[in-house]
Amino acid sequence: MTTVQPPGRSLEGGSGGAADRLFRNGTRVAGSFLVIALIAIGVMLWLSSSQAFGTFGLGFVTGLTWDPVASIYGALPYVVGTILTSLIAVIVAAPIGVLTAIFLAELAPRRLSIPLTFMIELLAAIPSVVFGLWGVFVLGPFLGHTVEAWAVEHLGWIPIFAGPAYGIGLFTAGIILAIMIVPTIVSISREVISSVPASQREAMAALGATRWEIVTKAVLPYARSGIVGAIILGLGRALGETMAVTMVIGNGQDIPHGLFDQAQTIASKIATTFNEASVGIQTSSLIALGFILLVITIALNVVARLLVWRVAGPPGAR
Amino acid sequence: MAVIAPAIKPAIATRLLRSRSDRRRAAFDRTMRTIALLAALVCVVPLGAVILFVAINGAPALNLDLLTKAPKALGTGGGAASAILGSLQMIPLAALMAIPIGIAAAIYVAEFSGTRSARIVRFAADVLVGIPSILIGIFVFTMLVLPFHQFNAFAGSVALALLMIPVIMRTSEEILRLVPGSLREASLALGIPMWRTVLSVVLRTGLGGILTGVMLAVARAFGETAPLLFTALGSRLVNVGNFSKPMDSLPLFVYTNARAPFTVLNQQAWGAALLLLLIVLTINIAVRARSFRRNVS
């Protein structure tokens, strides 16, 4: 949108001039506040974690033990836990989310797509801690008795499906995360799909394509990078999600060997131990975990935004 | 591409080919559309399941005691008054900080800044939204807790405000850009200075949409736990007005009581979760239903 350059500028020195300048500078301060806050978060986390990185170097990332008594800190089990839970979440949520977005944007009649969109937005509004409570007392036991028990009994000879099935661990955490990131994937994919020009669809339709052929051969190729961006944004959310995961993942301190093992993610490790940590190398190591998470999520977010912009255009240009 | 080739061949060929391959294509089309419908339904199931179970388990616990009594010694009952009062103090303070900054930043991006700086601020807001909220908690901990050696409710409010600001800024900015330029021109042509034009014409026009963004940010703040863990900490004492001391909040109450090894406390967690869910969903439904109706009409 092109806004008119305020002719107020030509009145400069007039009655509004000084007040206008004050107002404009006030809003500029607020605008810069966001940029400064972002930089400050990065700098503070880096400074607070420098002790840990200084002591352990890059070995911090690959270290296997987290031992406050011996003052040895290694992040690998939590990095692995974070990646595995998020991976489970994306594997489950991406196909369902993208199919749902296709359905809502291309296939559903309005009287179905409007309430469904509404409900998926509500799903995104449910607080993480409520998902966690539901996960501990309802979803966890349910998965433990059904999916996990079945897998352990029938597929238990494959190492990753080895029991026991607690219902609390990697798998449940992954499923909870999947539920939590589906709204992100759906809403952004839907936006991207909606921005595909109608002419693409009409061309396919004129060739006699079915609805589904229009989707797979005209819409999806055009929207592909944006949909990948939507999935990466979902992944970013899964990596940093804290409360629900903390409540259902158990407190495994080792690298998990199977799908149903108890584990720990970066965020859950911080959430459960930060307040008990003594200031010094232990706190610094926990913040260093946070710094790793910060770098990963910011990188993913930047990549994802760029991918979405490629299809839907940068915000403000629409 | 090969699949659709028959459709563009001359009519005779089409008649010969239609029979088998077209029927197969139509069947595939129907199957995939059904699968897409099922996927959409699967997305909605968890919403129903969460609401259902929180309602069933929470309803018996959501009583007058929970609403009015302070927590008692471990495992012996009491209520969630400390948490309710805590949320009702920390969130207004957070909103008080976040609303002016968020809206002012939106005005800067929509009305004053050049394209470049607008893009930078917008980008910063998008990245801030993507940062895990627990890291915001750590950041505020290093700024406002560590120097004073005291967990405090003010730090909790600041952490919540930091989460609300980018949300308020992005939604307000989208709304401000929708306000037609002719309104600004008309106002400026009357000799009204820019700042008055923005405040009483542009902002007034977009007020409904901005309010939507603010309310959604408030709803989000109500449910946030992670940024409060290392700032406001939570407390079993009722704290009214003392922002330099720890304070409880509804989600913190749910979290601590869900992990407690007492059934009574677990039940209180369900009750508080139901209360929390009611607050968050009511705000969301009220706000979204309004904007939905506007979109449809």
Structure description:
- The complex is a heterodimer of chains A (about 325) and B (about 300).
- With about 325 residues, chain A is mainly α.
- Chain A has a single domain, classed as MetI-like fold (Orthogonal Bundle).
- Chain A has 11 helices and 2 strands.
- Chain B folds into 2 domains: about 20-60; about 65-295, Orthogonal Bundle (MetI-like fold), CATH 1.10.3720.10.
- At the A-B interface, α1, α3, α4, α5 and α6 of A face α1, α3, α4, α5 and α6 of B.
Furnish the topology, listing elements before pairings.
The complex is a heterodimer of chains A (318) and B (297).
Chain A: H1 17-56, H2 59-62, E1 66-67, E2 72-73, H3 76-107, H4 110-125, H5 128-155, H6 170-194, H7 198-206, H8 211-240, H9 243-248, H10 266-273, H11 281-312
Antiparallel strand pairs in A: 1-2
Helix pairs in contact in A: 1-11, 3-6, 3-8, 4-6, 5-6, 6-8, 7-8, 8-11, 10-11
Chain B: H1 11-58, H2 64-68, H3 81-112, H4 115-130, H5 133-145, H6 153-178, H7 181-189, H8 194-205, H9 207-223, H10 226-229, H11 250-259, H12 263-296
Helix pairs in contact in B: 1-12, 3-4, 3-6, 3-9, 3-11, 4-6, 5-6, 6-9, 7-8, 9-12, 11-12
SS-derived structural category of chain A: mainly alpha
* Mean pLDDT value of chain A: 91
What would you call the structural class of chain B? mainly alpha
Could you please say which CATH topology of the largest domain in chain B applies here? MetI-like fold
